[in-house]
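Chain A, query sequence.
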Amino acid sequence: MTKRIDSAPLAAIRLALKDQAITLQPVMNQVSALPIDADLEYYFVPADYMKFYQPYHRPGQPLKNLKLINYERPAISLSFYFKHKYKIKRDIDPQEVMRHVKEHRDSLLNKSLTSVLSIGEQKELQETDDLLRQIRDNPEAYQYCFSNYHHYYKYWYCSYRYFEDEDKTQAASGTEHLLKHTERLEGNRIERMNIIFVDPYYITRQVPQDNKLIDRELDTYPTRIRQGTITLYVRKL
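Chain A, predicted structure.
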């Protein structure tokens, strides 16, 4: 039985992206301000290269380290936004609290063996050591909770519009969250990549939200005379 592959060869894909990926800019292209996040890796790829990624398109069984944001739905416009994601855990076992505090104290102690701690770090080490003893001696005197609220984890989303018919007359929209690199407690970094497919023609021009075809109709008029706030379009019959 063949073992199912859960990860894509990111190094090989990055090599291919050197020839495939394009740069998009707000105003010049139909894209909002681009996300800036050190843990976010994403590329814009013209729809012409979509077949290259077909082996990595697995509906219902996505790869862990590669996300094809809009496979078979090349974007004609893009926008990005993020949400502040956090969680809080209450009713913590004091032993779990002890492990957390001890790990933090030990990390400072280990650092002191290889380098000189700053005054702030020395104070933090002393306070952590004191807290560890106090919790050990009287755990019922404290209330505990775990939360990542102040880590300000940004959960990025990509919204896109695309043509849902072959004649490119009807547009629809979709939204997907983006994968991010993650750091494990052991210091291991897990890399994740996002591929966003774009229509290389329409990503450079506006497509009316009401799906009217006025832009394509006006494209058939070769002569244009602009006067004030109105333009005359002329073509031969």
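Residues 94-114 form the longest helix (21 residues). The chain has two domains: 10-86+150-230, 88-147.
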